[in-house]
Amino acid sequence: MASKFGMAGGIPERRVRPVWDAIDSRQFKNALKLSTALLSKYPNSSYALALKALILERMGKTEEALSVCINAKDLLYKNDAFLIDDLTLSTLQIVFQRLDHLDMATSCYEYACGKFSNNLELMMGLFNCYVREYSFVKQQQIAIKMYKIAGEERFLLWAVCSIQLQVLCGNGGEKLLQLAEGLLKKHIASHSLHEPEALSVYISLLEQQAKYGDATEILSGNLGSLIMIEVDKLRIQGRLLARAGDFNAAADIFQKVLKLCPDDWECFHHYLGCLLEDDCSLPSFANSSSVQVSTSTDCQHRHLTDDMFDCRISKASEFLENLMTEVGNDSIRGPGLAKLEIERRKLMYGRGNAEELMGDIILYFSRFGHLASFTADVEVFLQILPTDMKKQLLEKLVKIIDSSSAPSRNVLGQHITFFKIRELIGDTFSLPVKDLVGFAVQMTEMYCQNLPLSKDLDVQESMYGEELLSMTCNVLVQLFWRTKHVGYLLEAIMVLELGLTVRRYVWQYKILLLHLYSYWNALPLAYEWYKSLDVKNILLETVSHHIFPQMLTSSLLVDISDLLKGYLRFMDDHFRESADLTFLAYRHRNYSKVIEFVQFKERLQQSSQYLTAKIEGSILQLKRKAISIEEVEPVLESLNNGSDFLDISREIHSKRLTFNEDLKLRPWWTPSSDKNYLSGPYEDIPYNAREILDKAKQIEAKVISIEKRSLLPRMIYLSIKCASSSVKGNSGVNGFDSKDFSELKSLLELYAKSLGFSFLDAVELVVSVSHGQKSFEVFSSNLIDWMNFAVFLNAWNLNFHETNSSDRRTFPINWQVLCCLLERCISETINSTKPLLSSPGTDLSILIQLVTEPLSWLGLVIRSCVRSSLPSGKKKKKGGPPDQSNSQLCIAVKDSITSLFSMIEKVTKWLKEQIDKPVDADVDFLISSLHREENDDGPGKVVKVLETLVLSIDDLEVGERVNRAIRSWKPVDVVRKITTAQGTALTEFFAICELKMKVLQELKRQT
Amino acid sequence: MVCIRKATIDDLLAMQACNLFCLPENYQMKYYFYHILSWPQLLYVAEDYGGKIVGYVLAKMEEETTECHGHITSLAVLRTHRKLGLATKLMVAAQNAMEQVFGAEYVSLHVRKSNRAAFNLYTETLGYKIHDMEAKYYADGEDAYDMRKQLKGKPQPQQQHHHHHHHGGGCCSGEAKAE
C-alpha cells in the first residue's frame, strides 16, 4: 500500500524493486542473494529482514523463515520512530500468516498502533488482523477508534458489523444490538447515511430486535431513497409489514411487486400468505434467503372465518385474472401456477374442489407440459389430489398427448412429462411386472426413435430425451428389487452405459451408474465414473457423499486416501483464505455480506462430512500402516497420540453439526448413504417421495457414529502401550501407568455406551457370543465396532493384574476368548458371503473391514507384546529367565499369532477361489441372464431394443459422431467391465491379506 | 414461476452445481466469493418453485479502467428451465443494477464463437453488439466475441471528501449515492 516518498520501509524503492521482481518471477535463489546484499547495506531494517523471511518461506524453509521473521519483529520493536510503516508490517503479516502465526502479525500491528496512535493506515491493518483472527470484540474496539478519529461512516459500519458478528457467531448477548442501534442513530442524526448497505445493516439490526415499525418508518423516510431498485425496496417493505402483523398493508405492497414481476413465485406466496394470514408462507427474516413451498396440509389460516376466507381468496383470484390479462406473455408460468396454488389453498381449507384443481393442472399441461420443469412445478398440487383422481389425470394426459399437433420436440417433452408424473405418483409399485417391462421398453424405444432430433447438437449440450434412459433405469431397478432377477440390474446398467456412449457428459447417468456399480461390488468402475464427474470446489462438500461411504469400507485404500486428501485440502485451504476474503467485503462496504460470509465459513467448519473425513482419514492411515508397529507409531504421534480427536468427541454433542450434502441427486433406491432399499425385501414405496426420514434421529445417529470413531486412534495407542507393559517387568518402561489404564477403561466405557450398552453388559455380550451362547446377530449392523471393542478390551485386560485398581473384579476376557470370537466371526462372515456376480448386493465390506480394522489392531497389540518380550536392544532384561507369568503370556501370544494367521489365511483362500474363477464363465452366466423368449416377461427386452438400435443405426439420421459411438457399443463389453472391476477389488483385498500373512509368518519365527 | 433475486453466499452451493451441469467452465470458488463480496448487487439467482436454484448471473464492475463499466462473468440456466426467458430476466436484472447502483456506461461480455444460442440471446434479445474478437480466449483454444451493450449510465456520483478509495475507479466500489 504505502511506498511513500519513494521509500519502502525506509529503503529507497529502486533498491527494493529487484528483490520483488525476483520473487514475482519465482527466482527465489536470486531473490535471496539480492536480499542478502540489501541486508548488508541496511542491517537494521526490519523491512529488509521481512523480505528475506518472505523469500525463505516461499522456498519452503519454514523454520528459518520463522526465525528471521521473529528477528525482523524484534528489530521493529527496537527501532524507534520512523521505521515502522505499513509496508514493513504488511510484509511481516504475510509471512507470519503463511507460517500460521497470525498472533505474531497481530502483535506487530498492536505495537505499531500503540506507538503511533491515531494513524489510520496502521489501525486499518490492525483491524484486518483481527478480522483474520475472527476477534469480533477487538474488531469493534479498533473500528470505533477509527470512527472517532475520522468520523467516517464506513468505520462505524465496521464496528456495527463486528457487533452483529458477536451476537450471531460469537457469544455476545442481544443487548449489544441496542448499542449498535444507538451508535447508528447518533451518526444519522448528525451525518445521515450515504451507502445503501449501511441502510440494510440498520434495517437488519432493527429486525433482529423485532422493531419492525421503526424499520418501516426509516425505509419510507429519506433514507429509503438509498435503495435504488424499486422492487428491492418494496420487497423489504412488504416483509417488514408482514412481520409487524400488518397483513393488509403487506398484501398491498406484494401486489405492487407482482405487477412489476408477475412471474415471482416467492412474492406470490407472500402475497397469498398475507391475505390469508397463513403463517406457512409469510416472509421470514432477511437472512433466510429462500421460502420453501410448504407441501404439508397442516398450514393454519388461523383467524379467518369461512366468509373472510372466501372473500380474500376471491380478491386474490380477481387480482390474478387482471394480472394474466395484463401480462399476456405466454412464456410466464407464474400466473398459471398461482391459479393452481389458489385452488390448492381452497382444498386445504376444505372449501375447494379437487376436480377443479385437476382441470387447472390439465390446462397448465396443455400450455407447459412439454417443459422439463413441468413435473417439478406441479408436484405439490399432485400430492393433494385423491389417489383415484391421480390415475384419472394420467389417462387424461395421454389423451392430450395423442391429440397433440405440436412439433415433435414438444410432443417428446409431453411424453417425458407424462412418464415423470407416472413415476412421481408412484402407482408403478402396484402394477404387474409385465406392465413395468412394457414401460421400460416403451421409454427406451422412444429414446432411440428421437435420437435424430439431437443430430445437430454440440457434444456438450444435453440431448432430447435423455431423461428417458434414467427413468428406464429406475423401472428396471425396481424390477430387479421385485424379482431379484439379476438380468434386470444388468439391463439397467446397459441402458445407462449406452447413454454415456452416445454422450459422455450426462451426470445423471453417471450418478445412477456409480450407485449400481457400488451395489454390485464393482467399486473400481463406480470410482471411475465418479472421477469423470470432475467434482471440485464446493461440490466436494455437496457431492462426495455419493462415493465416500462405500470407498471408506472398501479395499481401495489408496484411492479413498486420495479422495479424502483432496477434499480436506479444499476445505482447509478455504478456511485459511476465507478471512482475507472477509476483509474484501469490508473494503467494498458490503457489510451484510461480511456477516453472511462468516456464517458460511462456520457452516463449512461444522460440517459433519468434514469431521468424518478428518477422523476417517487418520484411521485410514493407521489401517494402511498397521502391518508394522514402527510405522504406526509416527502416525499416532502426528495425531497427538489420538488425543486431538478426543476433544472432538467431547465437544460434538454441543456442536451444531451441519449437513451440506445434496441428497436430491441420489437415486430413489438409496435416498441417503445409510439406506438402500435393494438390500431389503420388496415393499411399496413411492418413487420420488423421498423418505421423510426422522431428521433428528438421523443427526443423532451421525453424531454418535462420529463420536465412536473419534475414540479409535486413542484406543489403539493405549492398547499398544497396555500390551507392552503387560509383559512382566516391563510396566513403566513405555511410561504406561495407571492413568493410561484408567483412561483406556473410560474410553471402553464410552465406546460401549455409543453402542447402547453399559461396559459390563458389553463385556458379557462379547464373551457369551465368543462361547457360542449367543449368535452374532446380536451385534446387528455394528459388528465391526463390537469386534474393535473386543480387541481393545482384551488389551486393557492384559494389564488388569498389574494395576492397583480398586476395582478388583476379574473379567472373563483373554486371548483365547478373543481369538475364538474373531475366528467365529470370520468364518460366519465368509459363509454368508455369496458370490459377487450372481448375488448383487453382497456385502463384501464387512469382511474387508474385519481384516483392516479389528484384525489389524489385534496384530498391533500382539506385535507390541512381542517387541516388549524380545530380549533384544534396549529392552533387554537385567538377566535371569523370564518368570512364569511372562511365559504364560508368551504362549498365549504365540497361540494368538497362529490364530490370527489362520483367520487371514481363511479369508485369503476364499478370495483366491473367487479370483480364480474363469472370467468367461462369469460373462456367460450374465449374458444368459438376459434370456429372451418371446412370451416371457423376464429381462432382456430392453437390451433387445438397444441391440436393434445398434443394428439399424445407419438407417437413422443421428450424425456421424453418434452413429460411430452406437456402432461401437457391445453388451458383452459391459459385462466384461463388471467382472473385471469385481476382480480388481478382490485382488486389492487379496494383496492386503497376503501382506498381512507374510508379516505374521515373520512374527511367528521371532517368537 | 420463478423468483429472480439477489444471491446470498449460501446460494453458492447450488450455483456451483448449476455451473457443473451447464458449462464446461468451472470457476474456483474463490472467484465466486470475489464477486459476491465485492459486488453483491450484481449477482442474481433464479429460484424456481420449490426453492431450487435453476440459474444465475455472475457479474462485476471493471476496476482497471477509468471508464465505468460492468462485465458479465458467467450466465447459466439449467437445461430443465430453458426457454422460459430466465436468462433474459437474469441479464436484465444485472444490467439494471450496474446502471442504477454503479452508473455503468456500458456492459461487456465474452461469448464462445460456437455458442449460437447464447450469441442470439445477446444480440437479438438483449441488444449487444460485437466489439472485438479475442483469438483463443478459452482454455480449449476457442475464440470469443467481445460484446458490448451501451447503458444509459448516469452522472458520476459526487465524491464525498472523506470517501477516499484505494483502488481508483470511484464508480465501481459500491459507494454510489442517492443524492
Automatic annotation (TrEMBL), chain A:
Source taxon at top rank: Eukaryota
Key word Transport present: no
Family named by the database record: Belongs to the MDM20/NAA25 family.
TPR repeats: 231-264
Keywords: TPR repeat
SMART domains: TPR (SM00028)
Record protein name field: Phagocyte signaling-impaired protein
PANTHER family xrefs: N-ALPHA-ACETYLTRANSFERASE 25, NATB AUXILIARY SUBUNIT, N-TERMINAL ACETYLTRANSFERASE-RELATED
GO CC terms of this entry: NatB complex
Annotated organism of origin: Tagetes erecta
Xref: Pfam families: NatB_MDM20
InterPro entries: NAA25_NatB_aux_su, TPR-like_helical_dom_sf, TPR_rpt
TrEMBL record, chain B:
N-acetyltransferase domain: residues covered: 2-152
Keyword Transferase included in the entry's annotation: yes
Annotated segments matching region Disordered: 151-179
InterPro entries in the cross-refs: Acyl_CoA_acyltransferase, Ard1-like, GNAT_dom
Pfam families, A to Z: Acetyltransf_1
One Gene Ontology molecular-function label: protein N-terminal-serine acetyltransferase activity
Keyword terms of this UniProt record: Acyltransferase, Transferase
Gene Ontology CC annotation, any one: NatA complex
Family matches, as PROSITE patterns: GNAT
Family: Belongs to the acetyltransferase family. ARD1 subfamily.
UniProt-recorded name of the protein: N-acetyltransferase domain-containing protein
